[in-house]
Amino acid sequence: MDEMSVIWLRVAVALYSLGLLHAILTLVRRRDHLFRVALGAFSIGAVFHFVSIIEEGLRNNRCPIGNLYETLSMGAFLIVILFLFIHWRYKVESISVFIFPLVFVMALVSTMGNPVSAWANPLVRNVWLTVHIVLVLLGIAALLFTAVASLLYLFQERELKNKKPRKFYYRLPALGTLDDLISRSMALGFVLMTLAVIAASTWAFIEHKTAWIYQPAIAISFITWGIYMALVFLRTAAGWRGKKAAIMTVTVLGFSALTWAAHARLGLLLKR
Amino acid sequence: MKLLVTGVSHKTAPVEVRECLAFREETLRPALADLKAREGVVEAVILSTCNRVEVIVTTEDSADPVAIVDGFLADLKGLSPDTIAPHVFRHEGREAIHHLFRVAASLDSMVIGEPQILGQLKNAYAAAKDSGAICGWLDGLLARAFNVAKRVRSETGIGQMAVSISYAAVELARKIFGSLNHRTVMIVGAGKMSELAARHLRRSGASHVFVTNRTHERAIEMAKLFQGTPVEYTRFVGMLPEVDIVIASSGAPHYILRKDEMSRVISARRNKPMFLIDIAVPRNIEPAVNEVDNVFLYDIDDLQEVVNANLRERMKEADHAESLVDEEVERMMARLKVAEVTPTIVGLQGQLEQIRASELEKMRRKLGPLTPEQEQALEALTRGIVNKIAHGPISELRNHAGNPEGAHVVAFIRKAFHLQD
What we know:
The complex is a heterodimer.
Chain A: H1 3-29, H2 35-60, H3 68-90, H4 96-110, H5 122-162, H6 167-171, H7 175-208, H8 216-236, H9 242-262, H10 266-271
Helix pairs in contact in A: 1-2, 1-4, 2-3, 3-4, 4-7, 5-7, 5-9, 7-8, 8-9
Chain B: E1 2-9, H1 15-21, H2 25-37, E2 41-48, E3 52-59, H3 65-77, H4 81-84, E4 89-92, H5 93-104, H6 116-130, H7 137-155, H8 165-177, E5 184-188, H9 192-203, E6 208-212, H10 216-225, E7 229-231, H11 236-239, E8 245-248, H12 259-268, E9 274-278, E10 295-299, H13 300-367, H14 372-400, H15 406-416
Parallel strand pairs in B: 5-6, 5-8, 6-7, 8-9, 9-10
Antiparallel strand pairs in B: 1-3, 1-4, 2-3
Helix pairs in contact in B: 5-7, 5-13, 6-7, 7-13, 8-9, 8-13, 13-14, 14-15
């Protein structure tokens, strides 16, 4: 990609990061935080993003969808425009927790089309990777918690629907309590996973230059993260509970296991 | 000292007998004073509730507690022992302690696990304390009984499950929502039953009550009771998305809420759970509404079913509670046994030590100054002899403590060793 275009795109990503911050705070604290600021930054970010795309198009004299990075950038930009339009027209704030992280990660990845210099210091490389692994493990722990609470929710819900109290009814916590637990652990897990994805993609970009994005293991990771994001969205915006949410949570957990398996040899990279 | 509990309860006597024996609050203190003043009585407590009347006394060993209490009841209530005999239960000693612990723990109550009895027992204790009818031993026993009750309540689930329809509704609401704070309630149809349920919900934290009724004036009237908001009957379905708990008890002859309506309400609420309580007969809410996700519909029979299940669960917990009570009685008996023989053991040891010390002193005077080694040897020798002599009687005392012949053993040893009373 063109140097100038990437610089504009990086400015846009920096602005989009406020959107990510809004999403994280909203999920963790369960109240809207910084939405006005994030929306403002998002709109200004969109302008820089637009400039970046135009620059790239003019430089190559073609529509900038020639490679994966350009396409991702274009895709992210279109999502931003669509979101801004929908928000202007219908005032739906709730989808922001879903859109902001998505756009941020897409735009971040698309800035990685140009290789940068190699690791300045092997220690930084190792610490960076360790941070990623720890974040993922914490994220999986939170996800496991969510999955167990979701199953307990299913049991208790069935007891309450059947109207014939048995052991589970007396021993399990209230539905509301479990729901609260699920929301909190799910949000925490998502925040940890998102930070892990950011840490991992920047690490892989520096490590493997531009080729990293074409690895199948990376694709699985992004798919897992995407499904997790869909779960968060469906729960917070559409209020999915009970069976649907439980199935979805277990699916995310399954994909996490798959991702883990795909990266089973990741630790070996540390020893090099 | 002897302990006797004499009484009648809902298990042994019909209400006609219980009401004859009951003590009203204002007659309780004079009655306690009368009982305490009788010869041989050491301490007295009277527990009088609508389900039981119990007279608890401790007397001197020489007195006959049964005769004393019979005389007391005959004098105060004009009932001869023969007329009430078929209805009266009497427990002495260990049995009495067991009975008191069970009563305090609400295991002997009509509704097992109901919490009022403990308060009533505490009141009886306070009354006895105020009128000076308690002075030490019963004090300790009742304090122990209160602790047992507390332990049973905290270690078993005996008092946890609701056993009335309106409380069962509140309990279910808690099982669905966790906390009831900031939950809103809609009453459809103003009746006594819905008022009661709403009152419980309000007390448990529900933040706001809406009331709707076909006659709007009645809705306004009832809304005032809960500082709630009356809602026009034609508009109430439109308000349901904002409501967490619905109590339906209108006299409508047909369903006023149907499945398709509730599906729409739930999507408008973004799937937040809703609890519908239908206590109307004929029912107000279509039963198929329960099939809608995140809706929990209970009619009057369902609530009764929950109450029955709760009662069964309480029974199971009661078994556990009984074994706790048995354990506590054992502990109490062990403590009493020790308390019974301890003064004699201490006295015996003191007596022997005194003999040893005085004989040693005599010997020193005869022998003149001794070397520290000789002093040590004499000390060890005499101590050994005294301990060997004391061993037999002390283990006899410990072995017989708490047995019927224990008192004889104590008396015999005191006499044999010239221990002063």
